User: Which sequence fits this backbone?
């Protein structure tokens, strides 16, 4: 009787183990029946906001004279910009930076021997922010005309922005999601199955690069401001069950 009971217990253990192994394999196979796909959204657009910066300087031994000359140049620059079609409220002049210049004298050993005051250097920066991108862009290239008025205006390359990025981003997310789902549908169909429940969705980094440039994407997201025409990219990763 004891031997019979032991045999029965062993048989039951084998049956239960077999069931558990088969069920585990079945569940594992079921879990693996999923698919992950990445869809992309891309949009070309033109900037609708430009920011242009420049600065100008004056120097004199008398601070009052240097400031008066700088203020005269500021008025001339403002009149010039307005004559070119820039609105007065689009022009912002920053506070004047004042620096004392010295001429240093050194001995034969390179040691400073004396510093002689060499006048005051005054510098003022200006910024133009406008939605008239083409006009400001052209002016930034034509400011050399101020040289005839005795003004040396240092012009910097404009920065270009887009004020409707939020709307553009939503549009691109929709396009990338649709692209990902189409890819998943085709893969499932070719595999003889059909898409099941969406398990997860992850959005990639939003990238803005210059149109038709070789700029690299960055992990934190690229945000080009040097190109008027830009290209925005975004990716969406979807994971589906397969029926």
Assistant:
């Amino acid at each position: 009787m004891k031997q019979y009971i032991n045999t029965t217990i062993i048989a039951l253990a084998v049956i239960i183990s077999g069931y558990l192994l088969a069920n585990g394999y079945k569940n594992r196979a079921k879990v693996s029946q999923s698919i992950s796909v990445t869809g992309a959204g891309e949009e070309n657009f033109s900037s609708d906001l430009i920011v242009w910066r420049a600065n100008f300087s004056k120097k004199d031994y008398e601070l009052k004279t240097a400031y008066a000359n700088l203020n005269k140049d500021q008025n001339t620059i403002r009149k010039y910009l307005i004559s070119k079609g820039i609105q007065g409220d689009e022009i912002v002049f920053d506070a004047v930076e004042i620096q004392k210049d010295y001429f240093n004298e050194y001995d034969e050993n390179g040691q400073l021997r004396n510093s002689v005051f060499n006048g005051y250097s005054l510098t003022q920066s200006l910024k133009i922010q406008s939605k008239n991108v083409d006009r400001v862009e052209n002016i930034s290239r034509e400011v050399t005309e101020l040289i005839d008025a005795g003004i040396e205006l240092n012009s910097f390359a404009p920065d270009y922005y887009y004020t409707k990025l939020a709307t553009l981003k939503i549009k691109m997310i929709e396009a990338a999601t649709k692209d990902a789902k189409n890819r998943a549908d085709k893969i499932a169909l070719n595999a003889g199955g059909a898409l099941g429940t969406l398990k997860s969705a992850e959005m990639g980094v939003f990238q803005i690069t210059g149109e038709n440039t070789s700029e690299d994407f960055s992990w934190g997201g690229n945000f080009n401001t040097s190109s008027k025409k830009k290209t925005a990219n975004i990716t969406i990763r979807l994971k589906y069950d397969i029926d």
The radius of gyration is 35 Å.
